[in-house]
Amino acid sequence: MKKYFVLFFLLPFSCLYSQNWDINTLEKINSWDRGFVRSYSKIISKTTPYIAVGGPIALAVYAGISKNIPLLKDAVYIGSSVAEAAVLTYGIKFAADRKRPYDKYPEKIHPSSRESSSSFPSAHTASAFALATSLSIKYPKWYVIAPSAVWACSVGFARMNEGVHYPSDVIAGAIIGSGCAVANIYVNRWLEKWLLPKPRKAAANTVLSMY
C-alpha cells in the first residue's frame, strides 16, 4: 500500500519532467532552421502522404498488370498496414485532443506550417513506420531495410523540425506504425482469404485428388 501511495505522489512530478523534456527537446530541434535542414524537412513532410499511399497502390497496379499474385498479396499487406495505422492514429488524435506545440508554446516554437488536427500522435510518422516496417518484413534485405528506416526516421525528425509535433507524438506514431505492420501479418491472412479466394476449379481438383 505504501508503494502505491508513493507512486501516486511521484506521478505528477514524472509527468512534469516528461513534459519539460518534450518541449525542451522540441525547441532545440525546431531551432535548426538552416536552409538545407528546413528545406529537407518541408520536402519530407509534404511527400510522406503521397509515398505512404502511392507506394502500395503502385505496387498493386504493377502486380495486377503483370498478374503477379504473390506481389499483389504483398501490396495488400503493405497497403492495409498503412491504412490501419492511419485509422488508429486519427482515432487516438480525436480522443487525446492534444494542442499543437506552437499553440501551447507560441513563444518557444516557430512552425513552418500549421495543421488542423490535434498533435498526439503523429500521423505522418505512423504511416511512414507502417510502410517501412511492412516493406522490411516482406523484403528483409539490407537495401530495403536501411533506406526504409532512414526515410521513416527522417519523417519523424521533419515533423519536429517544422514544430508541428512533440517528440512524444513522433515516438507514439513510430510505435503505432510498426505495431500495425507486425499485427497485420495475422490480419492480412484473413484479408487474403477474403480478397484473393482460391479458384473453384482448383478447389474441386483438390477434392477429387483425395479420392
Would you give an account of this structure?
With 211 residues, this protein is an all-alpha fold. It has one domain (32-197): Orthogonal Bundle (Vanadium-containing Chloroperoxidase, domain 2), CATH 1.10.606.20. 79% of the residues lie in helices and 0% in strands. Helix 6 (142-161) packs across helix 7. The N and C termini lie far apart (68 Å).
Beta-strand percentage range: under 5%
Largest sheet: none
User: How many distinct beta strands?
Assistant: 0
Overall tally of domains? 1
Succession of helices and strands: HHHHHHHH
Alpha-carbon distance between the two ends: 68 Å
CATH class: Mainly Alpha
Instruction: Report low-confidence residues grouped into runs of 5 or more.
Output: 1-17, 206-211
Query: Helical region count?
Result: 8
Structural class determined from secondary elements: mainly alpha
CATH topology: Vanadium-containing Chloroperoxidase, domain 2
Helix content: over 70%
- What is the CATH architecture term? Orthogonal Bundle
Instruction: Name the assembly state.
Output: single chain
Report the principal-axis shape. elongated
Q: Average pLDDT, to the nearest integer?
A: 85
Supply Rg. Answer: 21 Å
